[in-house]
Amino acid sequence: AKANGFYEQAKYADAEIQYRKLLNEKTVNADASYRLGLTSLKLAKFDQAYESFQRTIALDPRHAAAHAEF
Fold it and tell me: Which of 18, 27, 30, 53 has CB 3.0 to 4.6 Å from 3, enough for a Cys bridge?
């Protein structure tokens, strides 16, 4: 997806915008929430990253990668 492309290119601010748009369109998307958390870490937005990982686990309690970020 577009957001993942921005993330891979280290365009984290653009990736953040795209992940947020995706999450607004689809209310149940654990992977987008997880990737937003990773992007927030890259942007040193630690509180937002923590919230994203919490949301990811709430959406998918078995999301191992999100658990690992804690």
Answer: 18
pTM for the complete prediction? Answer: 0.86
Asked whether the beta carbons of 19 and 43 are under 8 A apart, the reply is no
Residues in the chain: 70
- Which residue in the block uniquely carries the two structure tokens 């942007």? 43
- Whether 27 shows a pLDDT value over 90: the answer reads no
Helix segments in 1-70, DSSP class H: 2-8, 12-25, 30-42, 46-59, 64-69
Alpha-carbon span 41 to 20, nearest angstrom: 15
CA atoms within 13 A on the CB side of 28: 3
